[in-house]
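in:
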């Protein structure tokens, strides 16, 4: 049997997998194989057999590298033995702690440990406590756990802090040399109310050629982006730390920035009424929304106002209202921005780009860092306006780099894989809509389905399935376009304060403006990502030999993509913990909700009022056998025909909260109204009366389920919907 190398991925249920370095399918490890290894160890495994579905099962033959990162957990004292139960259940084993290695930590406290003895087939791992984080209920503890659990760098090096402290507090005359002076142009920043770093500013004016009204020919759109590359140079300590982080990480009430605060909130932030260095994308946009011409140049600017989305939306809604009067000097410019946005939006439709309307939520915390409420975020015309302006600048940067045939990091987003395409085709067929996608789907096909179903009661669920059919966006030097946005080439240019790929794009553009080439050099600190860290390449990514320079670019892209995923996972983990902590105070309460996902072990329901998701385990659905129909995304009772489908309404009771496992369990109380999804399966009989009978049968099954005791519940992972957001939660950075 063949032997391969890879990284162990533990599972909370005791078994594990090996993610292969060659990106072939993962290899299953039985629980006994996991006794001598831990999550994220590097191993060599021998493939022993294949199961009936063709999935490989293996045996560990050699441990190549033990993971040296700290393990976070809670200190326990059981039967005279000290041990730490890892916070990350994927480790699968408790770690024994010698009595003299507890660092005076108290029972129940959260600690960080390092291993002193690795596990074996016959013994548990042993470790010592290196850091006492505090009590589990301390404010902000969930964030302290997450940054260590996911190995998010959260402390700048002494060299980085010293370099940042040595930077000037204000612009110097030497900084302004060879730059266009835009200080008199009324550029403004438009961000959320809680934003602290402002990395983009916008301005728009009508473009006239000739004389008279007929001379109007479009708009001049200026997007000015903070010039981080002026301060963060290749190979500096600042650059090393920025590359290691690759992105800022956003948690409720706390941000772990990519750059020190002196840069992120000071020198590089486009604060109002302060001179700042910027890189400008100056565009000419036609009435049809096409970018007719553009140019890049370094400039000096002064933001004329720090506006919020709410303020701009109020001005656009009422040009004589309070906000418009307060900002009367800027109203004409905001109206021009709105005009060019409408033109760009029209072109987006012509292009066939995908634009799903989804409900995003915001967690509002109290002074102790606990959830006070969860509220939906309203996406206004101001949000869309900024998004289209940023997309335009990003597309221009990609085009500029491509025209000069220079290496860079592209933001690549590929369409559905063959497997996901088939799943989507079967799902759409099961809905009976008469809509489907081709074997080589285009973005316009998915957008057409979204438009055709936007007024259906189950529109959100259909759109979620469309999103899940697509792959995750990644950073790579091999450009294969952006499927969702329907662009042939796309980069990230607009957020260099919080994303390292944007900083690299700035450096490339600057070099090209000076007639030079930018050569990427990764220092010893900036080691290329190991194969285990690299996201899997899209199936259609061209396989061709790369030069040494392209290998470095690909390594940088893999590193940035992996760290973006890490940031997302850490943020989701904190939000899940906060939601579990919040729902502990609502045990036993009843809520209405919607089925948002169906699995073989139960249904996930999102509550209407609280926007919290939980699981109704299959054992709570009634005293019969339920069969999972993947194509229809539903569970069907074999005896009664009762169906639980995505989009169904339900009323549930909060029955259990597992804070450590980040799981919330519901039990069914009663079904909601007879909805379209329940009736659709009876169209062949032509009888809505039969559908009502089904509901009565279902009610009887639910009543029977109330008396049953819930068994061991499993958890499901939601598909990452792939929409990278700007600082807290806008769509600016796709």
């Amino acid at each position: 049997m063949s032997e391969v190398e890879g990284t162990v991925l533990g599972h909370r249920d005791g078994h594990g997998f090996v993610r292969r370095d060659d990106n072939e399918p993962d290899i299953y490890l039985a629980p006994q194989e996991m006794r001598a290894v831990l999550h994220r160890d590097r191993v060599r495994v021998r493939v022993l057999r294949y199961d009936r579905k063709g999935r490989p099962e293996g045996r560990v033959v050699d441990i190549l590298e033990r993971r040296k990162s700290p393990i976070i957990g809670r200190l326990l004292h059981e039967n005279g033995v000290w041990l730490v139960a890892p916070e990350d259940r994927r480790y699968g084993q408790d770690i024994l702690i010698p009595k003299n290695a507890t660092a005076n930590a108290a029972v129940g406290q959260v600690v960080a440990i390092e291993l002193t003895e690795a596990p074996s087939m016959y013994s548990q791992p042993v470790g010592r406590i290196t850091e006492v984080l505090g009590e589990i209920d301390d404010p902000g503890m969930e964030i302290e756990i997450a940054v260590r659990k996911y190995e998010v760098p959260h402390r700048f090096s002494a060299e980085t802090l010293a370099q940042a402290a040595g930077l000037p507090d204000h612009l110097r005359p030497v900084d302004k040399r060879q730059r266009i002076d835009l200080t008199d142009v009324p550029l403004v920043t438009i961000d959320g109310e809680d934003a602290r770093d402002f990395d983009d500013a916008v301005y728009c004016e009508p473009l006239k050629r000739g004389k008279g009204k007929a001379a109007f020919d479009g708009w001049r759109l200026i997007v000015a982006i903070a010039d981080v590359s002026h301060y963060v140079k290749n190979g500096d300590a600042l650059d090393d730390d920025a590359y290691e982080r690759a992105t800022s990480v956003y948690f409720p009430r706390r941000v772990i920035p990519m750059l020190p605060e002196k840069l992120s909130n000071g020198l590089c932030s486009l604060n109002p009424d302060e001179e700042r260095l910027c890189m400008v994308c100056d565009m000419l946009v036609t009435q049809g929304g096409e970018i007719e011409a553009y140019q890049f140049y370094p400039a000096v600017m002064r933001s004329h106002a720090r506006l919020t989305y709410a303020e701009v939306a109020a001005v656009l809604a009422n040009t004589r209202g309070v906000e418009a009067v307060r900002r009367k000097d800027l109203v004409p410019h905001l109206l021009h921005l709105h005009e060019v946005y409408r033109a760009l939006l029209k072109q987006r439709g012509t292009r066939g780009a995908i634009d799903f309307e989804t409900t995003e939520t915001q967690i509002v915390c109290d002074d102790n860092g606990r959830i006070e409420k969860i509220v939906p975020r309203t996406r206004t015309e101001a949000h869309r306006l900024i998004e289209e302006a940023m997309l335009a600048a990003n597309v221009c940067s990609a085009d500029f780099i491509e025209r000069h045939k220079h290496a860079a990091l592209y933001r690549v987003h590929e369409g559905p894989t063959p497997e996901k395409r088939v799943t989507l085709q079967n799902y759409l067929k099961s809905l009976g809509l008469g809509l489907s996608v081709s074997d080589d789907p285009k973005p316009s096909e998915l957008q057409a389905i979204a438009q055709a179903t936007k007024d259906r009661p189950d529109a959100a669920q259909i759109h979620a399935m469309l999103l899940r059919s697509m792959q995750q966006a990644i950073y790579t030097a091999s450009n294969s376009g952006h499927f969702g946005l329907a662009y042939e080439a796309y980069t990230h240019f607009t957020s260099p304060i919080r994303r390292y790929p944007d900083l690299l794009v700035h450096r490339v553009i600057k070099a090209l403006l000076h007639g030079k080439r930018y050569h990427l050099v990764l220092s010893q600190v900036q080691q290329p990502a190991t194969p285990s860290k690299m996201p899997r390449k899209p199936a259609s990514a061209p396989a061709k030999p790369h030069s040494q320079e392209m290998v470095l670019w690909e390594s940088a892209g893999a590193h940035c993509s992996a760290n973006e995923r890490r940031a997302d996972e850490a943020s989701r983990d904190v939000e899940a913990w906060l939601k579990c902590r919040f729902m502990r105070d609502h045990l036993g309460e009843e809520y209405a909700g919607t089925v948002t996902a169906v699995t073989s072990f139960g249904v996930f329901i999102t509550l209407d009022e609280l926007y919290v998701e939980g699981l109704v385990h299959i054992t709570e659905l009634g005293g019969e056998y339920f069969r999972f129909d993947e194509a229809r995304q539903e569970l069907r009772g074999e005896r009664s025909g009762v169906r639980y489908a995505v989009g169904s309404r339900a009323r549930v009771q909060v029955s259990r909260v597992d804070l450590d496992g980040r799981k919330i369990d519901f039990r069914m109380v009663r079904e909601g109204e007879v909805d379209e999804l329940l009736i659709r399966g009876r169209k062949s009989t032509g009888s809505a009366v039969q559908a009502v009978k089904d509901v009565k049968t279902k009610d009887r099954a639910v009543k029977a389920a109330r008396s049953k005791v819930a068994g061991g519940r499993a958890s499901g992972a939601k598909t990452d919907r792939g929409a990278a957001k700007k600082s807290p939660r806008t769509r600016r950075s796709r």
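note: The CA atoms of residues 317 and 381 lie 9 Å apart.
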